[in-house]
Structure formats: C-alpha cells, structure tokens
Automatic annotation (TrEMBL):
GO terms for biological process: homocysteine metabolic process; regulation of DNA-templated transcription; tetrahydrofolate metabolic process. The keyword Cell membrane does not apply. One of its GO terms (cellular component) is cytosol. Pfam families: B12-binding, B12-binding_2, MerR_1. The keyword ATP-binding does not apply. GO terms for molecular function: cobalamin binding; DNA binding; metal ion binding; methionine synthase activity. Residues 184-305 form the B12-binding domain. The lineage of its organism: Bacteria, Bacillati, Chloroflexota, Chloroflexia, Herpetosiphonales. This is Cobalamin B12-binding domain protein. Residues 16-85 form the HTH merR-type domain.
Amino acid sequence: MSKITDRFTHFSQEPLYNTKAVVQRTGVAADTLRAWERRYGVPFPERTEGRQRAYSDRDIAIIDWLRQQTESGLTISQAVALLQTDSVIEQPTYDLAPLAELSNDCVQALLSFDVLKAEDILNKAFSVYPVETVCIEVIERVMVAIGDGWHAGKISISQEHAATAFMSLKLSNLIHQARTRSNRGVIVVATVPGEQHELGVMMVALFLMRRGWRVVYLGSNLPAAELLHTVQRLSPKLVALSATTKDNYSQAVQLLQELHKMPKPPIIGYGGAALSGTTQQTVLPGIFLGYNADQACDKIEELLA
C-alpha cells in the first residue's frame, strides 16, 4: 500500500494467522480476500516458507474495516481509495445530509420504532465519516435528545428503552468488530455499581480498541467486589470507570477509594456526569478523563505514554 491511515498503525505487523483464521475472525471469504489482494493490493500478507499466506493483526483490522465500509454502502474500490488516501475520493451514490440533520432523522426514526431506517441512517454515516465522529456527533446527540425528551415527559419509557437497546446493540457490534490481539496492554472499562447507563463507556471501550489497546469491557452495574477481583487478576495498566447518575456517586467514590488502596493499584481514570464537576475532580482519587469518549481516550493515552 502506498499510504495507510493512522488508525491502523498501533496494530502488530507480525504475521501470525493463516487464511482460515482470518476468515473466521472477519467473516470475509477466502476467495474474496484473494480477489482484493490481486486487484487492489489489499491486504498484503507475507508468505511462509511453504508459500502460504500469513496475516498480521494489522491485516485483520484492515480487512474488518474494508468489510464494514462495503456493508455500509461503499464499493470495494471506493473503500480501498479511502483507506489509501485517508480522504473520500468518490462519495457514495447518495447525498449525505449534515451530521446534525442525520441525528434529527435518527431520533425521529427511533421514536417511530423504525429501527431499519435508523440502521440505514447510521450505516450511511459510517460509510463516510470515521467511527469516532459518528459516535460522538450522531449517536451521542441522538441519545441526549431522547434522554431530554424523556425527562420532559415528551417521550415514553418504551421509546427510550427501544432507542437505548438499538444503540447498545449497534455499539456492541462495533466493539465485536474492533476486537483484535494487541500488545499495547490491558485497560479495564466499566461503570460503577448501580449504574445502568453504559453507552458512553461503551464508546470509550470501542475507541480504545480501535487505537490498538486490549480492552476488557465489563459492562454496567458490576458489583464492586467483582471488579476489584478482576483488576487484581489482570493487573491492567489503567481502569476507566463511569458514573452518570448522582444516585451512584457514593458508590463511585467508594470504588475509587478501594482501587486506590490496592497493594499495586493501576492508574485510575473516571468520567460521566456524576463525576465531572470541579469539586469532584479535586477530591476523588484518580484522574478525570474528560467530557466525552474521544477526550477520555486522548487522556488515557497521555497517561500511558
């Protein structure tokens, strides 16, 4: 490849996997992989002494990304051009609305329980914009609007639950696609006990995976004892916790203190609306990671540099 986007530079280039393993991990057929290699030079696996293809983690990440782009509406030639230049050479055949308009359209689709339309809106956005941009500028905006509507009594519990379930599944699928072997180190990501809101912390886990970290995502409302046991077992470089609702503030404080008291404590980071005030940041053990997932990942990489 003549050029490659920075998003893949953290992945190992060591050739570890045969074609069968790559097919199992990416879902891309062996014939398709060979066709991409022959026509576009992507991927470009090394060869063993027996002339068998040997793929690296970086190859697998690129293949996964290409598959995602084609599933979202790009042709393979468009996806390869985007990969090699890091800019859109040829837009898809549809005209894409501004992100704010996409967010509004997605809100209306979800309030109408039209998940197919919401899926189509997100897929088109993902085909043009980076995953991180769509998560922050579309998914986050959508959920804030729906949350505000629910608090104002304009949106039913069923509508809010359906929208949350849809976005949670979407992020779960993205996390699954982003998983790969990594030598950068382990980061544990979770909410504090009692916290049910996990979309923001799911984005943190996703973004870190896309930056090449091995992320152990423990989800929402994990008992403190379980999280502490996992941290003791894995010895992660950093633990990132989130608390959104004020009702969970005391639980968050207690957990942060217990992590800090461990014999060999990891770096402790936290975020979420319940922990983002200036007062909290001065008294809580650990480091405030920022106000959104992108800021959190930048801060984490700064701490681990």
